[in-house]
Write a structure and sequence with these properties.
binds S-adenosylmethionine; Rossmann fold; alpha/beta
C-alpha cells in the first residue's frame, strides 16, 4: 500500500486551504476558533499557537483583543516564529495559554511536545489541543482507501492519556456534524491537496461523482474535539 508523506501538504499554504475549505459545507458549522476563544477566557499573558497553519486562530484571538503568536515548523505557515513543537523556543511560563490545534498527530515525539506545551504556559494557564476522532470523515478517507494516510490516528480524541501525563485536568469538548457537498469541485481540490498517486486521485474523483449522482451530494461526518488541559 503506498504511503503519503505526513508533511506533503505544508510546503505551501494552498493544500491546507483546500482541506479547510471543505468545512464550508459543514451543516451547523462548528466555529472552532470561537470555541477556542471561549475556552481560553482571559489568559494572563500571550497565547502561543503552536502549528498555527493558515493563522486563523491567531487572527481571531488578535481580533478579540488577545496577544497571540503563531509558531510553525513550515516556513510557508510560520506567522511569527518558525520552530518545532518538540523544542519550543520560548522561556518557561512565558505564555498565558497555548494552542495546539490539529497538529499533535504530526509531531515526532508526542509526549515531549505535550511537555513543552505545559512548560511554556504559566501555572493556571490552559493548553487547548484539538483533533479528530478515529471515525472522523470516514467516507471521505474511503475515497483513497488504497493509500495509507493514517497520520491522524496518531493522536485522536481517544488519546487523552498522553495529555494526562503532563496535566492534572483534561476536559474534552466534542462536536459531531454532517458535511454535505453537492458538487464535486471542493472534493477534487481536497483530493489534489493530499498528494496522492495519480491513479488513486482519479479513482477518488470517480467515487465522488458516483456518490453525488446516486444521492445528490457527497456526505461525510466530522467528529472533532478540543481538549482543555490545566
Ligand atoms: C493540520 S495543520 C493545522 C493548522 C492549524 N493549527 C489549524 O488548526 O488549522 C498542522 C500544522 O502543524 C504544523 N506542524 C507539523 N509538525 C509541526 C511541528 N513539529 N512543530 C510545529 N509545527 C508543526 C504544520 O506545518 C501545519 O501548519
Amino acid at each position: 500500500m503506498p504511503t503519503v508523506s505526513d508533511m506533503t501538504g505544508y510546503v505551501s499554504r494552498q493544500p491546507l486551504g483546500a482541506r479547510v475549505s471543505l468545512y464550508d459545507f459543514q451543516v451547523d458549522r462548528v466555529d472552532l476558533a470561537g470555541e477556542a476563544l471561549r475556552l481560553l477566557g482571559t489568559p494572563a499573558g500571550p497565547v502561543l499557537d503552536v502549528g498555527c497553519g493558515l493563522g486563523q486562530y491567531v487572527d481571531r484571538l488578535t481580533a478579540a483583543g488577545l496577544t497571540a503568536f503563531g509558531l510553525d515548523e513550515s516556513a510557508a505557515m510560520a506567522r511569527h516564529v518558525r520552530g518545532d513543537a518538540g523544542a519550543l523556543p520560548v522561556a518557561d511560563g512565558a505564555c498565558g495559554a497555548a494552542l495546539a490545534m490539529h497538529m499533535l498527530y504530526h509531531v515526532a515525539d508526542l509526549a515531549a511536545a505535550v511537555r513543552e506545551l505545559r512548560r511554556v504556559v504559566r501555572p493556571g494557564g490552559v493548553v487547548l489541543a484539538s483533533t479528530n476522532d478515529l471515525d472522523d470523515k470516514s467516507s471521505l478517507y474511503a475515497l483513497f482507501e488504497e493509500v495509507d494516510f493514517g497520520i491522524a490516528a496518531r493522536f485522536t480524541l481517544a488519546d487523552d492519556a498522553v495529555l494526562r501525563e503532563s496535566f492534572d485536568e483534561v476536559v474534552l469538548h466534542r462536536w459531531v456534524r454532517e458535511i454535505v457537498v453537492p458538487v464535486p469541485e471542493p472534493l477534487d481540490a481536497y483530493l489534489a491537496s493530499v498528494g496522492l498517486p495519480r491513479e488513486i486521485e482519479q479513482l477518488g474523483r470517480q467515487r465522488v461523482r458516483a456518490a453525488i449522482e446516486a444521492s445528490g451530494a457527497f456526505r461525510t461526518t466530522s467528529v472533532v474535539g478540543i481538549f482543555a488541559c490545566r
